[in-house]
Specification:
By secondary structure, this protein is an alpha/beta fold. The protein has one domain: Alpha-Beta Complex (Spore Coat Polysaccharide Biosynthesis Protein SpsA, Chain A), CATH 3.90.550. Helix content is 38%, strand content 20%. It has seven helices and nine strands; from the N terminus they run βαβαβαββαβαβααββ. Strands 3-2-1-4-7-6-8 form a seven-stranded mixed sheet, sandwiched between helices. The protein has a two-stranded antiparallel ribbon with strand order 5-9. The radius of gyration is 16 Å and the shape is globular.
């Protein structure tokens, strides 16, 4: 059984998946529990390009999701995941080679309910700058970033998964729900910091 299930929601991301999967492959090779401890699931959100076929040729488990909402794609991937820990990252991203080890260190005890990493953009534009400012303000409320989110599979279920009625900011609501769950248990939140997930494209 894998320890960590990485869920990648993807809509027409054939161009972006190879760099992400290359970085995931490297991180799997460096994972202390071995590469078989990582499960990769691509939730194909009704793509019209070769996203699903590419993911299959790269050895990913592919889940077809017809509802065109990113929360639905994340949930569909999580539903078929077999790992104890769920991790979510967007298809435009690349992760640091030590990402899975950082997750392992963070979730090794029951003191942390959810973790997330920061983001570093590979390019900038006025639209990205505005979106970043909004995101920073919202995620400040949770004490976390939203680039790469991870939690226990059981806790994803406990908070009712991602809210599929939301077209955006579903990750912020998800983090807030986990924060409330953790507070009731006396658990804390964790931000893995720089160097765990980087080079996120937009």
């Amino acid at each position: 059984m894998p320890r960590i299930s990485l869920v990648i929601p993807a809509f027409d991301k054939q161009e972006y998946l190879p760099p992400l999967l290359d970085s995931v492959h490297l991180a799997r090779r460096q994972y202390a529990r071995g590469s078989n401890g990582i499960e990769i699931i691509v939730a194909d959100n009704a793509s019209t390009d070769g996203t699903a076929e590419l993911a299959r040729t790269r050895g990913c488990c592919v889940v077809q999701v017809e509802k065109r909402v990113i929360a639905a794609a994340r949930n569909a991937g999580a539903q078929v995941a077999t790992g104890e820990i769920l991790a979510f990252v967007d298809a435009e991203s690349q992760i640091h080679p030590d990402t899975f080890n950082a997750i392992e260190r963070t979730m090794a005890s029951n003191h942390v309910v959810v973790g997330a990493t920061g983001v570093r953009f590979s390019r900038t534009s006025p639209g990205i700058a505005i979106a970043t400012l909004v995101a920073i303000t919202l995620f400040h409320l949770t004490g976390l970033d939203g680039a790469f989110i991870f939690c226990r599979h059981a806790d994803w279920q406990a908070v009712g998964a991602y809210n599929e009625d939301l077209l955006w900011l579903e990750d912020a609501e998800f983090l807030i729900a986990l924060k409330r769950l953790g507070r009731a248990r006396g658990q804390s939140l964790s931000a893995c910091g720089k160097g765990t997930c980087d080079d996120v494209r937009a």
